[in-house]
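INPUT
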Amino acid sequence: EQVNYMEWDDKQQQQQHGQQQEHELEQQGGGFGMMYVKVMTDEQMELLRKQISIYATICEQLVEMHKSITSQQDFAGMRLGNVYYDPLTTSAGHKISTRQRWTPTPMQLQILEHIFDQGTGTPSKQKIKDITNELTQHGPISETNVYNWFQNRRARSKRKQTGVGPNNAESEVETEVESPKEKKAKPENILSNENHALGENEVCFQSSEIGSELHSLDQQHE
Amino acid sequence: EQVNYMEWDDKQQQQQHGQQQEHELEQQGGGFGMMYVKVMTDEQMELLRKQISIYATICEQLVEMHKSITSQQDFAGMRLGNVYYDPLTTSAGHKISTRQRWTPTPMQLQILEHIFDQGTGTPSKQKIKDITNELTQHGPISETNVYNWFQNRRARSKRKQTGVGPNNAESEVETEVESPKEKKAKPENILSNENHALGENEVCFQSSEIGSELHSLDQQHE
DNA sequence: GATTTATGAATGAAGG
DNA sequence: CCTTCATTCATAAATC
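OUTPUT
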């Protein structure tokens, strides 16, 4: 026999012969008892099985999603990670992609640079407000933008001096043994990622099935 | 070819033998094939990610535990992916670290957010210890990390309302853009938005339910 | 139009 | 607690 275990094949998982007894851990995991010891009640098993089954479904969805994304570039224009706008206007090709991140206008940049050069290393809050207010005349901008700009400007300015030396290849590339074309083309391994989770990949999907699945599961939980 | 799917991070993968389970999600192409190219708000995306991460974590935990009990059961396709103890820095010797600063795992984040939302403003020392202890089960973490996280979380949360927060300027454009900064306001039930994605289904396992479920599983494990 | 670079933004940690 | 710094991520812009 065997203990209850998850069958990852979510279609035919009813193969196991696990008994329905409630022998809660007679022995803890330590002993590697590879026999009839259950670590979970059947109830738990069932729940978890469903959860995982659902997860599998989600994974599949993600895979589908990914395929679609990678095959259709235009879709990528939707800015998966930062969608702030309408769903319409997609269709053919171009969407009035809203600027999802601020980009200083030449004028703004010039002014910012100028202020930066003044040596005013620390733009106070009030200062930021003023600057922002002024720059607003030259385009959309927020205080945060200004704040970030100075932060970044300074940090990078500083790094330039130290990090990049004349003959100092400080590059943090230790994986130099790579095919020139192989690069780091964003390993779209959506389903496996850094933190033993799905990571931060931007993936969107939609499925009422999953929704309801989860929902029912949730209820069952009580 | 097989679809991508979760790769179980594990340190003791060497003992995997046969018993490959590559067939997980292969089939099942059925009714889920269609993916609706969605439109979700940032908040929804963020939540979705978390949700999925939670599933991933659950699965991982399950596998972990299960393997402790039955050493015969190893899930194929395992590859290390844990970022925390990274083994590189071999050849060249450049660039040793890959991660110098703590990054909360999805599970940790979820828990932290949950605690944060409890309104318990300032976690006391003891509270921090407890939290840290709990979170340790989900990845490397220290009390300082927890402390800092709460500090930052609060500061950030507060800054949204006042000064240097985003949209403080009187942007005359884009009025239909909701502030993307409002991210982690409340992990609870954000996905249930009738207009989008998962519909009105309550898809959130966010809270303690799964958490405690996992936790108890862990305890059994030990 | 696929890659690479520059840079806006997010966030963990440190200082005060 | 509040401010600042450092590092990292994502992506608009630039480049080939």
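end of record. Residues 1-34, 68-99, 165-222 of chain A have pLDDT under 50 and may be disordered.
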